């Protein structure tokens, strides 16, 4: 039996309690509860007594209240006490400088309190059984801060740890982990954020990452998969934006095992990896090129087969990424080589079957036949002997026996490619079986033209030249020290090409002026793209000539001539201004269209009165107004009332009202006599038109 002795009495003489009194009352109630729980746990009975009462027989008195305890080691305690036990609120100061300020229960820290160590470690939060337990915040001497759940002085449950990363006293950045803890270590699900903003999110086991995702600060790098010792380990997916994407196995942060990697340049590899390098066996692709076989140090090594994007295929040995050793290669053109390779070239001994039927077996050097070898040509010719630079050793071409053939020896067309050929023969009049002869071809005439010589490598040569100026040339074919070949020089005639409308020229007085009733003419010279006159025959070009005005059209006669020109003639009937358009198909020729003025004949001109400039400009304006072939509305005025005659014209547009077109030239004079007011208005309108048309017709006024 335990007797609780009241040490703290009620405050007398006041109905209202102070804050301190309230605190004490609450603390007494809490202590009462603690005592009852303690008694129940230990089989005691609680008996409350007032002051002056005698405790029951066998009862143990309990003294509770505030006081101070001093310990032999120099520690001191101030606060609430129950039978010399720290119980309730109190502060314990250790001789080492450590101190605790908070709740106690039967001489143990329990409830909420703050513990500060001389080492500057500080904890503030929940306690149980003298240990940090529940929710609390801990500040570490190294600047770290943890807030979260605790169990028996260990971080346990969910919490967040912040870690300072020093970059100078004025600029401190932080790393942090927020997630599950167990036994003072990151354990379970959580997220670790690094100082640069990158983070890992996933599973932990005793402080080590086991499975999760890492994302860099700029999100350009991402890894999802297994981890060991905080390094990528096991199976995982790695993505690096703009560089690569890898699916496969890892070991100690490196690609190791089986995996597939796709690179941004289109390269893909699926196979074995060792120490972040392609090593073992695998498949490699890039565009149309595919390789399957051995790898070493990121390069093809050992036996493997490669199919190239041109369709060729190699099967055999590789070294340092190159064909090296014994191998077979089928080329895209059908050639098949089987033999020795060195540094990606045919080198050593080997046999080659060519697509044209030739077969060679012998020695090779730097991808060429070099040394001793035997070649059987498609025509059955067989050569056994020495080879140099992929050619068999034979004397050079002899200019006397070498033959020249083809149309380019006699004639060509300006601007067109002209060709002929050369078949080289040696001094014994045998066909040359290899190339290398220094032929030179030049045309001399209206211009000097150098020809291109293409060596086919079999003793034949293709010659091509392009002369732009027509005329007579001499063709010189030489070899070596300017020795003439065949029957050089050859006489070559270069003919003009087809007429080109854009290069044709126009001339003649009939382009600009003519007289009524008198035949006028002009000429069109047909020229090719290089401005050569197309002489020798009638020009091979359709030429169209149209002469039109608002008053009507003039028929033109076009006569092609053997000198490469067209004679264009016409006989105008009415005076006035016309437009001449010369074309071939859709192409205009020369400076088309041309402006033509037809005047009266010499006798009529002598009797002609002073020209009416207003009427002249009226005709120009009318021609411009009727450029589309429709002059309706020319004489209409906005406020003019429609007469019966005008109504008839409007309702019958297909009926010609004026039979004599020459009367159209008198419109201005007639209107001036009949309608003076209308004349003034028209002069104003013509003045506006004159400003707009003056530039266009200034050469014809």
From TrEMBL:
Membrane-spanning parts: none
InterPro entries in UniProt: Filamin/ABP280_repeat-like (IPR017868), Filamin/ABP280_rpt (IPR001298), Ig-like_fold (IPR013783), Ig_E-set (IPR014756), MORN (IPR003409)
PROSITE patterns associated with the record: FILAMIN_REPEAT (PS50194)
Key words, A-Z: Coiled coil, Repeat
Top-level taxon of the source organism: Eukaryota
Biased composition (Acidic residues): 627-643
SUPFAM superfamilies assigned: E set domains (SSF81296), Histone H3 K4-specific methyltransferase SET7/9 N-terminal domain (SSF82185)
Filamin repeats: 394-494, 501-598
Ranges in coiled-coil conformation: 670-699
SMART domains: IG_FLMN, MORN
Region Disordered, annotated ranges: 627-649
A Pfam family of this chain: MORN
Official protein name in the record: MORN repeat domain-containing protein
Organism: Chloropicon primus
